[in-house]
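INSTRUCTION: Work out how this chain folds

Token vocabulary: learned, describes local backbone geometry

RECORD BEGINS BELOW THIS LINE
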Amino acid sequence: MRRMLRELSRATGVCAAVMAVALSAAAATENPATMEFTYNIDGNASRGFGFGRPDTLDICIHIDSPALEGAKVSAVRVPIPSTGGTLAEEKTAWCTPTLPTPGVNFGKEAVIVPASLENDTLSATFAEPVEIPSGGLYVGYTVTVTELVNWTQRFPVVISTGQYPGGFIMRSRERYPEWYNGESHNQVSDMRVTLQMERKANSAAFTLDQDPYGGLNGEAIVYGRLTNHGLNPISSIEYTYAYGDKKETRSFMFQKPLEGKFGKWADISLGLSADDEIGNKDIELTIIKVNGEDNLDPQNSVRGTLKTLPFIPKHRPLVEEYTGFWCGGCPVAYVLIEEGREKHGEDFNAISFHIADALQIKRVVYPNSINSHPTLYIDRGDKITGGTTPSIFNCEYIWEKERRKFSPASIDVALAWGDEEHKTLVATSTTEFAEDHQGVDYRVTYALVADDLTDPSWTQTNNYIGAPYEGKYWDIFTKATGNVNGLTYNNILASFPDCRGIEGSLPSNIKAQTPYTHSTTFNIEECEAKNGGMIYQDPGKLRVVAIVLDGATNKVFNSVSSIYSGQAETLSLDNAVTCPAEIVSTQYYDLRGVRLNNIPAADPYIRLDRLSDGTLRASKHLDRAR
């Protein structure tokens, strides 16, 4: 598959202007008895795509919306770039409820008709329109590339930017018989399919992003996606929700109407009243009206669980970046993280893992699986790269969706110097859960990161020269050469000894609304770079990112960043916290932060007592007689 993707990348190019004409928007006055369906809903710019070699190609889309079940496919048209090379005379269009297995031709269930090519547009008509069954229908075409002007100039496929399941699927009969799904590369086909159907004037589907949650006797939020299936733009909706004995109807107004294109969607949040008692209840929400008219869409209703809580933890998703100076594709991650820092401030927490360059730390264990660069993880969920679903270019959207998710715990962190010489940093977290949990393996952990790192000898490889992206940080790369110097790097990992969580840092039985404190110590003199020297440049520009996660799954619940070390105070002598709980274990550290096996006989030390309520008590002991 990697080889296939390289071939695809090499063969990608820009189509002639005639393609834009071939794909012009449908006429403003649309016949409600027919509809032109496409996954290029926004009419994004087109580009050529292909394998750069003679072969037979099968290209299709999958139409599987319940709102289109029973509609009939009557015609297909799709642009075919004329740049270089020749296509065989025989060209076909087809419909099939299932795709054949790799290496197998279409079976009897497929309806295949001849197609013609004129003015760089392939078109075909089905004499007997094909009905879309439950489960959807694959609609596509087949062409054979017979000759090439050269291997870089044969683009028999046209694609645009978009991310829809089934938006672009293809295979090569001879070289790559496996079906390739373009969703992983943010690609959709520019195919237009004429459907025979009676389209309603006002119709919308609603899907749930996550179960709703809210504070006791407060407001809860339902996050979901509204998709326009009607002819008209959507200005307003009415919805009703019911749980327990409560039933209520509310309305929602769009600031800007949702366009009247089939499949045009918007992520929206709908308010409802949370319960007057803590707990979970089944809830049903229905979009009953669109623009004041009854909404009869088959997907107008959703079911879920309403969670009512004593408080709502603020969710700050953790972004973990894997990158390197040598990686030409990595500037995209640099841009996304710097934009996130600037836009979201203290709510945006990131840790940057550099590999095989001057910013790689001497001792590191990666908390995530990595096989390509750049790679991003958000709360250690989906692996996000340039070649996976979801795409790295959707990182901002993914981060926003993750932030809206319910986090079971809040977390705060305090930072202090552990010694007068400022060689050790003590981070103390306070974690509080919104619900009780029994028999769990939840953990906290800490990463020490450094900001404002720069060196004129550091060179970032850059593959984005002239790329069609704009903005303060994109301009650094798109208007540069293949090597960029003078960058300032932030969020750089300096130490992360327990990246998958500290065992025993939280109790297995957790009581809601109970603060659990925990501390750890970093010795900044051990923050060494693999190639020598220290990772940080200014000891006052160190921060600690505190993390709460599930030790069983490695899934991150929440994160928070401390103040800069330059703003931190120094721990006072014998600053033990008075606490009636019993001591269950004790650990000793020297003033460099190195853990000791036993209490030292003479040297100064830091003592950490773990108490029976899950908290930690820290005390510093300087005057010791031998």
Residues 331-344 form the longest helix (14 residues). The two ends are 67 Å apart (CA to CA). The chain has four domains: 2-196, 204-309, 318-571, 572-626.
